[in-house]
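Continuing the batch. This is chain 6 of the set; chains 1 through 5 are on the previous pages. Same settings as before, nothing changed between runs. Recording input and output for traceability.
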Amino acid sequence: MQQGFVKVAAATPDIRVADPEFNRQSVLKKVKEAAAQGASVIVCPELCLTGYTCNDLFLQELLLREAEDALAWLVEQTRGLNALIFVGLPFSHMGKLYNVAAAFSGGVLLGLVPKTTIPNYGEFYEQRYFSKGMKQPVPVSVAGQESYMGTRMIFACREFPALRVSAEICEDLWAPCPPSNEHALGGANLIVNLSASDEVTGKDIYRRQLVQGQSARLVCGYVYCSCGEGESTQDVVFSGHNLIAENGQMLAESGRFKNEIICSEIDVSRMVSERRRLTTFETSWKREMRYFRMEFSLEVKETKLTRFVDPSPFVPHDRFDREKRCEEIFAIQAMGLKTRLAHTNCKNAVVGISGGLDSTLALLVTVRAFDALSIPREGITAVTMPGFGTTDRTYDNAVSLVRGLGAGLLEIPITDAVNQHFSDIGHDAATHDVTYENAQARERTQILMDIANKNGGMVIGTGDMSELALGWATYNGDHMSMYGVNCSVPKTLVRHLVRYYADTCGDDRLAGVLLDVLDTPVSPELLPPEDGKISQKTEDLVGPYELHDFYLYQVLRYGSSPAKVYRLAKLAFDGRYEQEVILKWLKVFYRRFFSQQFKRSCVPDGPKVGTVALSPRGDLRMPSDASSAAWLRELETL
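Output for chain 6:
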């Protein structure tokens, strides 16, 4: 449970209909297997101690008594397991029969959660036997213990108070207002569902969507466990389709028509952080007070992670999804610029073009905005400004790109102007320090701004979100523009956007230029070349952008601590980066992220395209003088 991870399991046992003695042994076997895999929360199917398909046998007192005895036996047999366990059984109370989920841990029966949505349509006849469960828990005597039964129950871990578990049963999830809605607003962040969902054509797709959607809507983990082989096939077949989801992401899914155990880790701390961020997720102490809080104990230990940790959280892995994402982002960027151009009645845009990725993307977006406004592309003034570090490769690519897109090209070398500036301020041009580099960036920005004034145009910013996160921009140099189209696009995604354009533009010559831009090392080209090649490579100086984008996503999207980011990064980049390398650049990320906030506090307007952005008017309201001491102290312990 370190860093908030809790391993959960959905375990479908082999059963015999109406044979609780056999079923208890089978359930115990599956529960022990799941516990051996490290699961701290284990869920078995609906009515698994008797079988779901008992039909009128549910009215037999012997079966009910055997089921309760089986539960008592399981509670005792699992006393030494480090887990919260849920199993389903029928339970008689006050002359009524209820379909319940029994929760127990450490030899203690914590409570019974009754099913509230009782189906009686199609192949389902549950109202023939079962009554609708009560919300407010009532005292019951079951399995030799005094406990409570009701839906308003939260099972809370003493050692890890953030873990708060509630249950619902099968059809409850399919209802218009599932009990889990109320559970989540009452504080539960892990919902378990004991199910007996029969299989018909296409139902698995809807079931999967339902579980994913509910976990997203409630910002929770969701464990769905269904019965399978062993149930009667008199009229229907059950497939044992088990699912584990977290906030809309499917973490694990069983095969169908086989009784399996699936395990994964729910990031409870992430759910807590996400709910804190979403002010519309209206939990309250009044709602929480409606719930009985049943506590259980778990040994706190590190949960071995088996879940997939995406090393490229900004970039979809599926090609279709990636292309769809790229098209959508292009549309957002272009629409933002189109609206700004139309609002200001601007017919001219000025873009500094270097032959690098960022300026290439900015030019492509500007072209799309101009096309949408039916403004001739000649109204785009693309300015290439060769300096001390410009190579033939980037210069040629810049020129070819502008000509291929049909924009206006203007070449203004900056070396003489910068040398004059060095003379004016008394700087030795042989000293290649930050003054040497930033003077070039500011000279280029001054040129762009003045051309825009001269032509009644707008300077389009080229810098991306990854650079902004690290402060890798010259203050009042490339840091500044009149509209920053790339401001919330991370570097890892910039690359895919340019590739998408190359793949879909239908112009082989232009595509060739774009592919060479993609193949060029990322560089500001502010230091003289070596043997005609780029000598200054950004990722050698500040670290790989794929690492920094991963760090940025984990820190801003989920508020993860340095130790947690490091743990996830080691898993995501296993085999690609040594642990020492990951930690080195993580320290650089935190130092730069805190120290460079002043640059982000005054960034130009630009469109938000994803769930992470750095605009001080939108997603990141951070003081420029915030201390990084607490974060750096934790980093030093890793």
